[in-house]
Automatic annotation (TrEMBL):
Full protein name: Carbamoyltransferase
CDD domains from the UniProt entry: ASKHA_NBD_TobZ_N
Family membership: Belongs to the NodU/CmcH family.
Family annotation (Gene3D superfamilies): 3.30.420.40, Carbamoyltransferase, C-terminal domain
Organism (species): Lamprobacter modestohalophilus
Source organism superkingdom: Bacteria
InterPro entries per record: ATPase_NBD, Carbam_trans_C, Carbam_trans_C_sf, Carbtransf_dom, NodU/CmcH_Carbamoyltrnsfr
Amino acid sequence: MAVNILGISAFYHDSAAALVRDGEVLAAAQQERFSRKKHDAAFPAEAIRYCLDEAGIALAELDQVVFYDKPLIKFERLLETYLSYAPRGLRSFITAMPIWLKEKLFLKDLLKQELAKLGAVPVAQLPPLLFTQHHQSHAASAFFPSPFERAAVLCLDGVGEWATTSAWLGEGNWLSPQWEIQFPHSLGLLYSAFTYFAGFKVNSGEYKLMGLAPYGEPRYVDLILEHLIALKDDGSFRMDMRYFNYANGLTMTSRAFERLFGGPPRKPESPVTQREMDLARSIQVVTEEVVLRLARSLHRELGVDRLCLAGGVALNCVANGRLQREGPFKEIWIQPAAGDAGGALGAALSVWHEYLDQPRTGAKTDRMRGAYLGPRFTNTEIQTFLDDAEVPYQRIDDEALMLRLAELLDAGQIIGWFQGRMEFGPRALGGRSIIGDPRNPRMQSVMNLKIKYRESFRPFAPAVLAEQVGDWFEQSEPSPYMLIVAPVAESKRIRMTEAEQQLFGVDKLHIARSEVPAITHVDYSARLQTVHHETNPRFHRLISAFAERTGCPLLVNTSFNVRGEPIVGSPEDAYRCFMRTEMDTLVLENCLLTKSEQPAREQDLSWQQTFELD
């Protein structure tokens, strides 16, 4: 009889649910995609309901439910931290205690109550509730779905219970802990401190800091290594906590940090200056050096040639790219939902393989299914929505649709692309994407300012046919999850003039650096997604049709959302986003909608107001 295990992550950020049946990943989704609240930390009731529906079971039919960390150990860390800093941190202590004493300290009871309400069953009839450690969940999410039978596992994030960095050896169906670095010394929190200081939001603005880095110079690297972090040859480190406030205060950085870098943090939404660009470049350089040193030490200690990565720092695709090119490992595999959302999946897999001692099957294959683990919608469901809303559209079969879209993309149109199962993790991978022509020199600024409503410096990623990636990028390995940054091939680059080489900051933005300027960052790099026929045949066919028409086997691919909102989850979400932005065309499976044919109606305004309230 099949064993069904539900994993849950919640109550910090990016809550999610995942369902594993006999070790096979059936479904996984973040709560934000249903609630429309970005990084939603609430109990993931709708995500759980989706997982159960996808598996075709009721909650009472689950064999185990597992939560992705251990709240009592986390509470112990909180108390010990406040005691060690007392009397400093009193305001932070007073702020944190009520929610702990009301909810988090009694999380087991809270989870049972929420599950009972969701399943409409008495608490006594619920399946057993288990807890894994936070970094154990990360490690399990990295190793068990990977194609490796034996591998080193490195987890780097802000903090779990105590661990901020942990190393593991994965063998078969078991993970053996090797060593860890504990709070408050955290590479993730160090990077987040600079995110905060640069005026971006912690736990979501780290991508912006990474994208900003190539515009700056690494002028603060020595200052960081001299004052903020003592980095050893083996990659281990300690931080000077006089410069930080996250352990005992309500902000990330202290006055000493401000004095060191010549002023207060940048105010959000104010102009980005050269200081922020240089800070971004400097902390990026330091982060890459820490990751490389840790990886080399792990390789030397364990004597394995393969590495798995998880934790929020594993989403730093620039560091991942250097690790792949310069590191000691022959192969690396990164969990696409590397942050806390992926902890739900890791917790469920840990129960199956470690708690129940079940072997891994399908070894040497990526078991994440391309990360397409979320809801899907049929053409019938989509047409019912469109007809009920009296929305004009055309139903077109696949072959004709691909040719039509290739023509529209070649003409410079920006297209909302909604098809198949929704992606699990922070990246849109051709299920819920906005796509465009990478050859168009205006595409980056138009997408940023008129579609995404975000900072003009933010780079876009290419989705490239896997079989042609080596022709366009200095990369031969697959990168299906958009987690590796690689240089654009020399043969595709455009040499800069001497005058252009003298430019600084965002003045670099408008220089075409390659034959595909919309996806080429200012340092000639790109964040790659290799598209594979096996995992997303329909997106593969679309790019192939564009390649046949233009000779260019890649498209601009960015997430189907606007700034401050989650990626769209349903046809309704997609249509609202389409009507709110300057996208030209929307594709919902085989239904094609043209912006010029959409009537301006009063209800469209109400949908826009819904977005603003979210």
